[in-house]
Write a structure and sequence with these properties.
alpha/beta
Amino acid sequence: MTKELLRIEGLNAWYGESHILHGVDLTVNEGEVVCLLGRNGAGRTTTMRAIVGLTGARKGSIRIHGEEAIKLPPHKVARLGVGYCPEERGIFASLSAEENLMLPPVIAPGGMAIDEIYAMFPNLKERASSPGTRLSGGEQQMLAVARILRTGARLLLLDEISEGLAPVIVQKLAEMIRTLKAKGYTVVLVEQNFRFAAPLADRFYIMEHGRIVKQFAQSELAGNKAMLQEYLGV
């Protein structure tokens, strides 16, 4: 039986005077990989930021493990077991890779030990003493995700993690997501790279103009090619 982890209903969000989200409805079940698709400006990143309380005003409902989170500040949302990896990564440039990994607070039990992190990301083990500025883009991205795994978060919000990276690194990130899914993590992806997301996600939501316009399952992918072309140009 599937257990619902995240339910968003009638979500509206603003940045100042700009009304970005217009009644977003979506659900994510425990252990799923769900992908938000859409063109730039569709509202996908704002949806992620609204979940963790990083937009301006919010209205509607965001339930995490059944608990209403719409009025909670970001640090309290995190303590519901939510980890957000923003597109800009936020690596501490002057600290080594390992120092970056030692910084995150524990927000829930079950965070990954350093040895587990290094088993999943051998590149980071090799670069443990390198400062953040010396890491490649791919290594920075791995480090940004690894930091979340240290906290004990089980719902991972990953924003454009494949953007601008070499194909070999993108492949490693895909393997990482499969491993995390096998370990029971729940993942919400925002992705422009449809080829990266297509084989990984259980379900897809397409956003346009701050709304969900379509949703479909992995099994319906083949039958939705024309619709994907229309909305995404893929």
